[in-house]
Batch of 2 targets.
Target 1
Amino acid sequence: MNYKRLVIFATVLTFGLIMLGAYVRLSDAGLGCPDWPGCYGKLTPHLAAPEIAKAVAEQGGTHGPVSEPKAWKEMIHRYIATFLGLLILTIAATAWIKRKTLNQSPWLATSLVGVVCLQGAFGAWTVTKLLKPAIVTGHLIGGLTTLALLMWLSLRQTSPVRTVAPPQDQKHLRILARIGLVAVACQIILGGWVSTNYASVACTDFPTCQGSMWPQMEFDHAFHIVRNLGETADGQLLSQASLTAIHMVHRMGAVVVIAALLSLIVALWRNAGTQLLAVGLTAVLTLQVLMGIGNVVMHLPLWLAVLHNGGAALLLITLVLVNYRVASKVHRA
């Protein structure tokens, strides 16, 4: 497989792995194997069947976090993540070996190795630290950062950066594209915080929340980073008002993102060379907003929650594409 195909394959695999990770988390399988990197010290859940059966008996049935199907979900995610890590190591090595042929700096590919190593550490901590929200959110951020960097690297292999707007508009587009990317990244972090704190169902109506446009919220503990799942920093149960605050801030963030991206879409539409980007960004944004609303009014069905995570990843790489297209020059770093 040549370098271009290798990078594209890794990008597609990362997108799929992000959706699989969301499925593992949302189906309550994140602790299906409560150790790392194996499952009860074994290579596969099948080999760990006696230990899993004992854990199931101790928790009083398969309704808890441990069961063999959940263990398989968790381990399949780990197997694919390990394969992706090896793939990225291969990409980085190839980038150095063929740097003259590729006519590209190998440092972007090399930086991916560092991100993946950190991502692997977050994956281990996610399990060993019992799903602490900050660590699980960090794991999500690491996965999406990997996807964004791979997307940029893929675009380098498939099409050169070129001018797509008159010089007087290029700088304006570039600024709006960067603002849009930052806004989406921040919103994804907020969405991760909602998901990892299980605050998605704190509001089950829309556009109101609990029948009010401004429900009771408590912010003191909602965004305290270092704490256990479902608890405040001092070990008390996290209140419903705190979960509501987390949920509502994500909704408010969505308004900011929509405003930022609409400004970008209008600017893209006004230039003949970027109208297709405007259409694509509009479609992805609309789909993501509808899925977000659907998750609220349909009480977070698993399939839609997973698709909403995938929509966030798709929106991110769409913004990476837009930023790449409106860049004024080729970046070699």
Target 2
Amino acid sequence: MSEESERADAGGESTLTVLLAGGVNLAIAVMKAVAGVITGSGAMLSEAAHSVADTFTEILLLTALRRSGRPADVMHPFGYGKERYFWSLLAAVSIFASGATFALYEGFSTVIGEPVEQTSPIVGYVVLALAFVLESVSWTQAFRQVRRGAVEQNRTIWKFLRYIDDPAPKTVFLEDSAALVGLVLAFAGVFLHHVTGSAVYDGIASILIGVLLAVVAYILGRTNLRLLIGRQADLPVVRGIREHLAGAAEIEAVVDLQTMLLGTDQILVCARVDFDDALGAADVERACVRLAAELHSEFSDVTEVFIEPVPRSDPDLRAAVLARYGDIAKRYGR
């Protein structure tokens, strides 16, 4: 399968995951809102706000998927890949602003405010059960995509989520996981309110839902912040690129190697290498072209390669490399 086909398949699966989650969240939001009004449950209303936030999140993620796929142009010669991280960051803000904030407000209002009488708790139980089933469908699709990606990279799911360069499946997976936990908390709040007659349990459930959403928003916001700033490629890829360059007959030493994620499955490579002094200018030019083509071929995510000939003995360059990498630079002989 070609590189373009692999990216199209990955993007298509992410779109499917987001669309499924968005449709599910919209349906659930309506059910929860109606049930919240009927039962008077703060936890149920908090869950409705949670689902509304998730629906806005899916809209932002769809925007990210579509806009980040635009081709490079004069104003953006490296393409629009990083725009996916911007819209995904807004999705994380949406989870906190509209979901966590409302849930915390509703929870504290229920705990310290006037007691609220619960009505028709059976309606709440039915809606929560239906919502759990629907959320499970969306969560299953997100989990399948995450698990498939982890297997392809020979990583645990946790490590895959930590180093993933496509925020869409991570966002859907975490928000759906939080949704399932939130439904359990809401059920506990409604049930304890029903059994004891005290709305405090309902309020505590709302507060816990708000804290849960705030944690998820923080994790996703931190992930997208790192990607927006310009995270380097995964270490196995960086090591592979370094070894490939160091193994070239024309190169005596890899003095410096920098990589950066330009977007999902897009890596920029900047290498400073010390070529054999016996080579002529034309030999160096041909070597640079060949090595760039080899890196494109061996590492499918590498989209841009810049190779700069430099002397390894240059003191200013060595000082700059040591300042950036410290002891790691010495270990690699930079």
